[in-house]
Amino acid sequence: MSTSLSPLFQPIELGPLSLKNRIVMAPMTRTFSPGGVPNDLVVAYYARRAENEVGLIITEGTTVGHKAANGYPRVPAIHGEAAMAGWKKVVDAVHAKGGKIAPQLWHVGSVRKEGIEPDPSVPGYSPSGLFMPGKPNGIAMSQQDIDDVVEAFAQAAADAKEVGFDAVEVHGAHGYLIDQFFWEGTNIRDDSYGGDLVARTKFAVEIVRAIRARVGANFPIIFRFSQWKQQDYDARLVETPAELKAFLTPLVDAGVDIFHCSTRRYWEKEFENSPVDGDLNLAGWTKKLTGKPVITVGSVGLNTSFVGAEHGMEMSAQAGIEASSITQLAERLGDGEFDLVAVGRALIQDPEWVIKVRENRLEELQDYSKESLMQLV
């Protein structure tokens, strides 16, 4: 292993979570679970990444036990006897290969459209019945609806712990339900769940607290958040470090152990005009402001041509899979800007990505193609 890449392969202890290296498999929806039940193909898919030395696997989004949680066919559930039996097979297979795994707990909110399983008649649920600012879809949640969803997340976390998962991740990013409560444009409630940014964290805080009460003090809770939304890539929750701290503090107080800071390009600095630590990305600022461990993510391992085409602009070579880009990533990790690095599409493309990087076989890393998303194992 190249000395310059060694920070990526240092073990780390995050409370009770002991990881062999700093590389995380990012959650990626694949729709390979008919009826919401993970099958043998799903078992093999995750076991193969564990066998190839991914430090922590975060599963694709798994829908909690609320009637409107799902927004896509063939997405795995994290509730019900059959789904939990399927997940136990996944967990056991990952552990047998020496890996660690956490499910991502998910409710899509107003992204849901009528006609989607499991009950096609159920509309989307969201804080104010909005898919995006000024565009309604579904219904605004009542207090009972909010209570039901909080309970669904808590039960999902308890069930995940019961079948042997090593942690859970709460999906609070990308314009799905929890993020819809954060986003000013989709949360126009006039009760205690609306108002300023701190007030709009109340729903997420209740979910985290309920999970913590159910899983105990020593079970890690990861929380994923983002500025951007799938409905609006340019959306921003905060514009300054002070606003970011105000947003994160209630989540820390509720019991979040690790923040997963989702950006579309990890190498970009978060606040252009900050006179102090101006080059930090979102994960770097989150760690600085909270003192909590953080995961950075965003186009890690993607080639320059793909990133440029995907986003319609020229991108730095730092976005590519050249030796210099991986080295720069490792240097930032080694400098303590962030603690873990999540790799997404590159790990679908190549299950051996971690080993190839560790062995400095970067010339063997393949260009990402969208067709690889349909790869079974």
- Provide the structure class: alpha/beta
What is the makeup of the main sheet?
Answer: 8 strands, parallel, barrel
Q: Share of helix among residues?
A: 25-40%
**Which residues sit in consecutive blocks of at least 5 with pLDDT less than 50?**
304-321
How many separate structural domains? 1
Q: Would you count the extended β strands for me?
A: 14
- Range of strand content: 15-25%
Q: What is the spatial order of strands in the main beta sheet?
A: 3-4-5-10-11-12-13-14
Distance between the termini: 27 Å
What's the helix count? Answer: 11
Radius of gyration: 19 Å
Give the full name of the CATH homologous superfamily: Aldolase class I
Coarse morphology: globular
Q: Which fold name fills CATH's third level, the topology?
A: TIM Barrel
| CATH-scheme architecture | Alpha-Beta Barrel
| Overall residue-averaged pLDDT value | 91
In sequence order, what are the helices and strands, one letter per element? EEEHEHEEEEEHEHHEHEHEHHEHH
Write the layout of secondary structure elements.
Blueprint: E1 12-14, E2 17-19, E3 23-25, H1 40-51, E4 56-63, H2 81-96, E5 101-106, E6 125-126, E7 130-132, E8 135-136, E9 139-140, H3 143-162, E10 168-174, H4 177-182, H5 202-215, E11 221-229, H6 241-254, E12 258-262, H7 282-290, E13 294-297, H8 304-311, H9 323-334, E14 340-343, H10 345-349, H11 353-358
Parallel strand pairs: 3-4, 3-14, 4-5, 5-10, 6-9, 10-11, 11-12, 12-13, 13-14
Antiparallel strand pairs: 1-2, 7-8
Helix pairs in contact: 1-2, 3-5, 5-6, 6-7
